[in-house]
Each structure stands twice: as structure tokens, then as C-alpha cells.
What we know:
- The structure holds two protein chains of two kinds.
- By secondary structure, chain A is an alpha/beta fold.
- Chain A has nine helices and 17 strands.
- In chain A, helix 1 crosses helix 2, helix 5 (223-236) crosses helix 9 (372-388) and helix 7 packs across helix 8 (346-352).
- The two termini of chain A are 23 Å apart.
- Chain B has helices spanning 52-69, 84-92, 132-136, 154-165, and strands at 19-24, 27-35, 41-44, 74-79, 98-101, 113-119, 122-130, 142-150, 173-182, 188-192, 195-205, 207-209.
- In chain B, the strands form three sheets. In chain B, strands 5-4-8-9-11-10 form a six-stranded mixed β-sheet. Chain B has a four-stranded antiparallel β-sheet with strand order 1-2-3-12, covered by helices on one side.
- Chain B starts with 18 loop residues before the first strand and ends in a 15-residue tail after the last strand.
- The A-B interface holds A 30, 32-33, 43, 45, 47-48, 50-51, 53-54, 78-79, 82-83, 85-87, 89-90, 97-98, 104-106 and B 32, 34-35, 45, 47, 49-50, 52-53, 55-56, 80-81, 84-85, 87-89, 91-92, 99-100, 106-108.
Amino acid sequence: MLRFHQPVELPPEVERTGELQLGNISMPVALCKLPDKSGYFLYFKLNDHSELIEEGARLVAERIQSLGIKNPYFVTPEASTLALAHVLRHKYNINGTTVYKTKQLNDISPVSVNYDSVTSTNKKMLFLGKNRAAAMHGKDIILLDSVCTTGGTLSAMYNLLIKAGIVPQQIVEATMLFTEGKDRTEIDVATNVTLKLHRFSTLPLYHVPCNDLKIGLVGSESEIKLSAIKNSLSIIVPGNKWDIVGVPAQSGKPEQPVEEETLEGAINRANDALRLSPDSDLVIAIESGIFKIPDDSPEGFSWHDKAIIYCLTRDGQSHIYYSETVKFPTDCVEEARRRGFDKCTVAMVMLEKGLIKNHKDPHAGIAPFKPRAEYLKEAALRLCKDLFNQPAPAPSLNIANKL
Amino acid sequence: MQSQRFYAPAARQSEAIQTGQLELGNFSMPVPRCKLPDGSGYFLYFKLNDHPDLVEEGARLIAERIASLGLQNPYFVTPEASTLALAHVLRHKYNIQGATIYKTIQINDIEPVGISYDTVTSTNKKMLYLGKNKAEEMQGKDIIIVDSVCTSGGTIRGTHDLLVKAGILPEQIVEATMLFTEGVDRSEINISSNVNLRLHRFGHLPLIGLENTPKPTTSPKKGL
């Protein structure tokens, strides 16, 4: 989930617009802060810009034609490409399907996938009815979207189609109007599966200058979380003697964070840790929260616990990683809510009900009975891999945080 | 709020016939009938964005309607997301300016105002937001509220109230132009106790009641 592969210097405060270019179109658009406030991106709603839609459709149609495929068919996720898809169908006579984030009423035996994207801290879902998948058989499929940043949505679309019975050989390529942050010509969509990616332009991501980060790594006082970071670092960079220190950073959020409070809490914690340990080279904050995830249950959703690992580096790069989620009992969530999330966590209620033995590690007591440390370690490993595959200095480490 | 559905329920078709005919201007197509979320009947189900000919015909009719109103500064306002393709055609092909209002606060919204409203399609309250920067662009414009389907009128009321809350004068809001009314055919919509907004529609969609649906005209069924 790394964003800042090719950092770009942020323009001065007075010029916080950037130029968006696509084919023969060029237009100024606003620079807006990323949701985690770690930088800026060029903000536009494709559906609101007619000339951009028309130019995008022209380029996509030309690209599809150049591929020389027999039965071209695009598949695109809602909603940024809805108008683009209309122009492709109406003006260029190219057929395709929109895959939706919710189950549609006329979907027969729908299949679904969960996925992460950098634009949201919540899991997202895509659905496809088998009746609509059947209409794709024999087609040469192009995965189409407006912007590819980490590739999360593309991977989800690929896996959704495979799950719905589409043969991998049918999926020709991903055609994007833009890549963002990192320019790509291919994308890993599944284990051992790399898909060709064609894009017409690249959007920069701008860092927030962060000159006050110095040496060290800041993370957590919680033994579980400290161990997760320590173990991961020792696996990725063996032999180094890390100076890992936990400091009691504050999240400023309720005892039981819910939804977006989780990322906000992690960011607050990282910033507070920086304040407490200004010589840090890296700041790692871990925050766990509960998230409403759509599913096939009668309520249409269930509550899942998920940890967010948020890392700030000395040069201002931010990295966000998510642990796997663990489903929490709805009645325990509602009871904790009734008592007040400011002082009561769901795990406390689960402990009272005898569902778990340790409210600091509720995951160990419920299916699939994997300790919290394992979930954290898996996410921390991904972080450490990304951090140290880059030309980063080998810092002395300093971990802070309270979990 | 009004959320009645079954003012004039159509006779139920045979179970074997699972489609209905959707008609709009010069366009006609079969669409599936789907059960209402509360199971009390059927409605004609379609996703406007997925039907290019329907989008084009809808835009043509709306453009004609707006031209016929003789407005000086026509400007459409439409809630996301069913009209996204339609809005593009209005802008690009017919050169009619307008804005989409969103269900979430947009990153570039300055001092956004929000409003919650009820619809028959959801048991939860829905929200619409509009930044004051975007509302400023609407000053002096003759505003048409555009949407695909009006069933209870909840979204139209929500859009109207949002615009007024953002500083638009009620006099600027000319009418609601809908592709379809559904269930009850209307020519105006009650916005508040003393305010009715003219409603223009091009097609009408029946709601097909089940045998055990209560007699609707005297005791309208409460919406979802």
C-alpha cells in the first residue's frame, strides 16, 4: 500500500493547484490533502468534467481498437467511470459492464470480494451476479478505471471476475486514464498473476514537507505491539541492533475507536509520539478499531476488528497497513456502544460474557483463534518489507505508543 | 414526510411474466420486475447509467423541456448517482450547465451544508451535502432539480431544502424535472406546509401490488 514511490516537491502554498493532463486536454485542478494528511493529490471528479470524459473515452476506444481483439468488453467499477462508460457504449459502440459496490436487485447468485483502497480506511466490496458474468463469456475483457494508485481496486475486479467464473485468459489488460504516485505498466492482481496495465497519463502525489523528523522509530508501549514490530524488523533486516523504544503517545480517541476514528487515532498517536521523541527517524503507531463490513447476513453487515499500522518516515512519507479483520459478535458491539465507547471496548464485553480470556488479546479466543500478535506481525512485516526495500537509512529505532 | 407508494397499484401480472415495459419519449424497452424491499409489491428495475439509449433520450427530453421554459440562466442540480451519465450528456451535447450534489462531503467543499432526508428505497436517513463555494456558482441561476425517478418525493425535498440552506433563494428553483414518476403520478411536489414545487415528468412507472396489498387510495401504505 505504498503511495509515495516517486515523491514530488509540493508547490508553494499560494499555488495549491496542479495541472491535470490527458491526451489533448489540460486543466487546472485543486490540490487536496490525502485523507491521512500525509500529502496532497490532484482532486477531480471525472463525472463532473465533460471534456475530460469525452477525451478519456476517445483514448480508451482508440486503445481498445489498437489491441485488435475480437470481442472487446470493458468491466469498470462504480462510480467514477459511469459517464465514461456511457460514452464508450453510445459513441464508440463498445459494450461493457459496471460492477457495483452493493448487491443489485437483479443479481442472480452474486459473488463478492472485499478489498482495501487508499481512499478509505474501511474494507470495500464489489459484487457481480452470475447472470451478468455469464454475459461476459467469450468476451475479451478490459478492466477499466479512472485512477490506479495502489492497484487495490484493479486486483479486486480481477479476483471478482475469476470468482464469477471468468477464465483468466479472457482478461486482456487494465486500461487506466491515470496512474497516480507510481507510474506502472503492469500490476500484480493475484499471487503469481501480473496484468498488463496501460495508462494515458500519470498524476503526481505531493509530500507534506516534514523536516522535523530525525533519527529513531516510534511505536508502542504495548508488549504485543512492540513485539510485532521488533519481530518483523528482525526478520526483514536480520543482524541489526534496533533501538526500539515505546512511548505513551495519545490517540485522542475513545477507548473503542469506530470506523474512521481508528486511522485518526493512529495519526494522532504518531504525531504525539513524534512530539515525545523528536529525534525519531520513523514513527510507527498502531491502533485497533471496529469497522462495519457489508456481508450476506440478514442485517447486511457485521462488525470486524482491524488494526491500522501507520508509519511516518523522516522525509515525510506515510505508509498505512491494515491487519486482517476478525469478526466480533454484534451483541457485544451493541452492549459496548450502550455503555459508551469512550470507556468500554467490545473486548471488555466479550471478556465479561466469557467468550475470551484476555481482553487485550480478544482474537486468541475467537475463531480462527489466532493471537493478535500474529495479525499485527503479518501487517508489520509488509510495512517493514516496503520500508527496507527502499534506499532508507538503517536507523536506530525508538518505538512509542500506548495501545 | 410523504412516502406513500401505492396510490394507483397496477394489476399484478402473471408470475410467468417477469418483465415490464419501460417507456420514455421515443424509447421503449423491457426491464425486469423486482420485489420492493419490503416485499409488498413489484417495481420496474433499471439502472439508468447502464442504458445508453435511455440516457440519451432522457437528456434530449430534458434539454427540450428546459428550452421550452425560456429561462435566462438554466442550471440543473441533480443528486448522485443515477443521473451521472445523463448529466454528462446535458453538459456536453446540450451545453446546459449543472452540478451534481453528493451523498458525502467532497474534499473540495468549502463550509459544506448537509441535510438528512427519507426515501422509500432505504430505511436509513440519507444525506446530501453542498459546499458553499459550489452554491455560490448557482447564484443568479434558474435552477431545475433533475432526477431519474420520483416515488415519494423525498429526494426532491432533500435537494430543495439543501439548496435553500446553502443560500439559494426559493424563487430561483423553477421546477423539478423527472424522467419518471413512480406509483403516484404527480404534477407538483409538496416541499413544506406552504410550498409546492412544480414537477414535470416524461414517463410514469407503475408499482405492481400483491393481492394482499391494502386498498391504497384511502389508506396509503407507509413507505420503507
